[in-house]
From TrEMBL, chain A:
It comes from Brachybacterium endophyticum. InterPro entries: ABC-2_transporter-like. PANTHER family: INTEGRAL MEMBRANE PROTEIN, SLR1174 PROTEIN-RELATED. The chain crosses the membrane at residues 20-44, 113-135, 141-171, 178-197, 234-252. This is ABC transporter permease. It comes from the Bacteria. It holds the Pfam family ABC2_membrane_6. Keywords: Membrane, Transmembrane, Transmembrane helix.
């Protein structure tokens, strides 16, 4: 546990050294947030002030919360683990006296904590100033909301890790990452709220882990769901985290068995 | 736990095959394990293709276009027993099977066949438990946290190995002193020079005081001073703690300075295994005695089996070749001393590089 905590802290400190990247990230996040907010607001105003349960303020809140989650869930995918497999550095990870999944989860939590604070919160402040946002007032919503954020980060981490672990069998995982992030960005409810999808697509989407990555924490934190309504959603997040953990673990086990560590 | 009589490393008839699929031929081959010797290819499945064709992409699902598969035997019948406290140099050319053997010993690679025990454990199923008892340095990889000060890596590793804080600080101060890390402990690892980083890597591998230390090319790319510093500390640490040392290297002076025993691998098999001291003699390579005489002398009458290689400096310097098994230096000196006054002398041992080359030449 101490090792886990120290890795989380180290990973947080590590990312805090990338100052220029952080500033650039906040800037682009804010700009894209503004663009997305104007599109959604235009759509809502065309629809007569409300679109499938979203009014202007709720839509703006949805956009800015989404922008805040973008960095910590790493919605554009990661390549680190795949690169470690391809370059053989996975040998070093496997020789640590700590499980591979635990090790990388600890790193992810530290990284995401920094990304949420440094890249997620500032664009939200920009949004609050420019378009206004609405956040819950009761502490229970906040508590469940933050739990939903941690679980969203966990589910996104596991799904992304599974894509990365295919590097054991694929020479190049970039194509798969592109497909995965495209599907994930849509089905997670990051681009437009899931409630705006056609009905059949909503049903299909609900059967995937993707809403657990973005839509659930946004709903919990924007007050669209009451604490009582949030609970089952959090339960679904936990279930997906469990399923994906087993999946990632099986994939890792199969991968290390077929491993041909490359390079000296 | 193992008792002191158990071997630290036990390999019996160890073998490892790599399946090389056609499409992956160019990228998937380990650069350090790629045997260029075509005789190493022991089996071919699927259509045989030449190298250029192997690199070409064969579309999947095209009927009849099965992907070429070749099996490369990286390690073939390696047997080895290392007792606790021994220091073994494991040498061989690129692609001889050194790194593959180490990866099987540490549980990263599953052997194709054969028996491996390291500190009494089966490496693959007990990999993590084993990792608490062994220290491994891969000279070409890093286990340090790249963007953080070197000191932070030791904090994390200490926690991973569940070292009590007092034990960790005591051990770390020994490592800092012995490896001279003080000046750059607070610098991010990415800013360290190669020599500094390698010292950091060795400290990271030794932090938990492992009983077995496995070093895969620890001095690669280092300058003479860094190499010497690293070797000095490895010797000291071994003397203090009685650890077992298993070392692969391209630098024979690593073996000479650190090991008592040398194992030479060639084409995935053990070509020589024995004490370093006997290594030269058993190979029969001649030693060379260089004698400077007080007065020039055209030629010396030498005992049987001893020959003059060269006479230099107008008869002052004589280079004499002899075999350690047939002649000792004192006897030779006595024989020369009867004929001339000796002003100075030096003894040149055959370089291990030459000896390994000779083993390779014989093996062909």
């Amino acid at each position: 546990m101490l090792a886990f905590g120290r890795i989380v802290a180290a990973s947080f400190r590590q990312y805090s050294t990338y100052r220029v990247a952080t500033v650039a990230g906040v800037f682009t996040n804010s700009i894209f947030g503004l663009i997305r907010a104007s599109i959604l607001l235009a759509a809502i105003s065309t629809a007569g002030g409300e679109l499938r349960g979203y009014d202007a303020l709720q839509a703006a809140t949805y956009v800015w919360l989404g922008q805040a989650l973008l960095a910590p869930i790493e919605a554009f995918g990661t390549r680190e683990v795949a690169e470690r497999v391809h370059e053989g550095d996975i040998a070093v990870d496997l020789l640590r006296p700590m499980g591979f999944l635990r090790l990388h989860y600890a790193r992810k939590l530290g990284r995401s904590a920094f990304l949420l604070l440094a890249r997620g919160i500032p664009p939200m402040l920009v949004g609050a100033l420019l378009t206004g946002i609405t956040l819950p007032t009761d502490p229970l919503s906040w508590l469940l909301g933050l739990l939903a954020v941690v679980l969203a980060i966990t589910v996104a981490f596991l799904a992304d890790l599974i894509v990365n672990l295919t590097a054991f069998w694929l020479v190049q995982t970039r194509g798969l990452t592109v497909v995965y992030t495209a599907v994930m960005n849509l089905l997670s409810g990051f681009l437009i709220p899931i409630a705006w999808f056609p009905d059949q697509l909503i049903a299909l989407t609900r059967a995937t882990p993707f809403p657990a990555m973005v839509q659930t924490p946004i709903d919990a934190l924007s007050g669209r769901l009451t604490p009582l309504e949030t609970l089952p959603q959090v339960g679904i997040q936990v279930a997906w985290a469990a399923v994906l953990t087993v999946g990632a673990w099986l994939l890792l086990r199969a991968g290390t068995r077929s491993l041909e560590v490359q390079g000296g | 736990m193992t008792t002191s009589n158990d071997p630290a490393i036990e390999l019996r008839a160890l073998r490892r095959d790599y399946v090389v699929r056609g499409r992956r031929r160019t990228t998937a081959d380990a650069p350090h394990e790629t045997p260029d010797d075509p005789s190493r290819t022991t089996a071919t499945r699927g259509p045989r293709r030449d190298r250029a064709a192997l690199g070409a992409r064969i579309p999947r699902g095209v009927r009849g276009a099965r992907r070429a598969q070749r099996i490369i035997r990286a390690v073939d019948d390696v047997s080895l027993r290392v007792d606790p406290g021994e220091a073994v140099g494991f040498v061989g050319a690129n692609g001889a099977g050194k790194s593959t053997t180490i990866k099987m010993m540490t549980g990263i690679l599953q052997p194709t066949a054969g028996h491996v025990r390291v500190l009494g454990r089966r490496p693959v199923p007990e990999r993590r438990r084993l990792s608490r008892e062994i220290g491994v340095v891969f000279g070409q990889r890093s286990q340090l946290w790249w963007d953080l000060p070197l000191r932070d890596s030791f904090r994390i590793l200490g926690a991973m190995h569940r070292l009590p804080e007092s034990a960790r600080t005591a051990r770390l101060s020994r490592l800092v002193e012995g490896l001279d890390l003080q000046d750059f402990l607070d610098r991010p690892v990415r800013q360290l020079s190669l020599g500094q980083r390698m010292r950091g890597e060795v400290a990271a591998a030794l932090l938990h005081s492992p009983r077995l230390v496995i070093l895969d090319e620890p001095t690669i790319g280092l300058d003479m001073i860094s190499k010497e510093g690293l070797r000095r500390f490895l010797r000291e640490d071994r003397e203090e703690r009685g650890t077992t040392l298993f070392l692969t290297t391209h630098d024979m002076s690593d073996v000479e300075r650190l090991c008592e025993r040398i194992v030479v691998v060639n084409s995935g098999t053990v070509a020589f295994d024995g004490p370093l001291a006997g290594f030269r003699e058993s190979l029969g390579a001649p030693r060379e005695l260089i004698i400077d005489l007080a007065e020039p002398q055209e030629r010396l009458t030498l005992p049987a089996g001893v020959s003059t290689l060269a006479v230099e400096a107008e008869g002052i310097r004589h280079r004499i070749a002899f075999h350690g098994s047939e002649m000792t230096v004192p006897r030779l000196l006595a024989a020369v001393g009867e004929q001339a006054e000796i002003a100075d002398l030096s003894l040149a041992e055959p370089a291990i590089e030459d000896l390994v080359r000779e083993i390779y030449a014989r093996g062909r």
